[in-house]
C-alpha cells in the first residue's frame, strides 16, 4: 500500500495543496492531513481513492509495483494532464 511519504511526494510533484488533493480524491481534508502526518491508519477506501487520483494523473507508487518506497511518472504517452 502507498506510504505517507509517497503521498507527500506525489502531491508536491503535482503542485497540489492538501485541499486540492482532498477535493480531487473526494475525501476529507482532515483525512489527507492525518495520512501525511502519520497520525492515523487510514481506511482502505480513503487510501485507494487517493492512490487512484494520483494514478489517474500519471503517478506510479513504487511501494505498489516494486516493493520499495517512492514515486515515478509514467511515460508521457500514458499520462493524463497534470491539472
UniProtKB/TrEMBL annotation:
UniProt-listed InterPro entries: Cro/C1-type_HTH, Lambda_DNA-bd_dom_sf
Protein name: Helix-turn-helix domain-containing protein
SMART domains: HTH_XRE (SM00530)
Species for this entry: Dongia rigui
HTH cro/C1-type domain residues: 7-61
Amino acid at each position: 500500500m502507498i506510504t505517507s511519504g509517497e503521498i507527500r511526494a506525489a502531491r508536491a510533484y503535482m503542485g497540489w495543496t492538501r485541499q486540492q488533493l482532498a477535493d480531487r480524491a473526494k475525501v476529507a481534508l482532515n483525512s489527507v492531513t492525518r495520512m501525511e502526518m502519520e497520525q492515523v491508519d487510514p481506511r482502505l477506501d480513503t487510501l485507494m481513492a487517493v492512490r487512484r487520483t494520483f494514478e489517474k494523473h500519471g503517478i506510479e507508487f513504487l511501494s505498489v509495483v516494486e516493493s520499495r518506497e517512492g514515486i515515478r511518472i509514467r511515460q508521457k504517452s500514458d499520462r493524463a494532464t497534470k491539472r
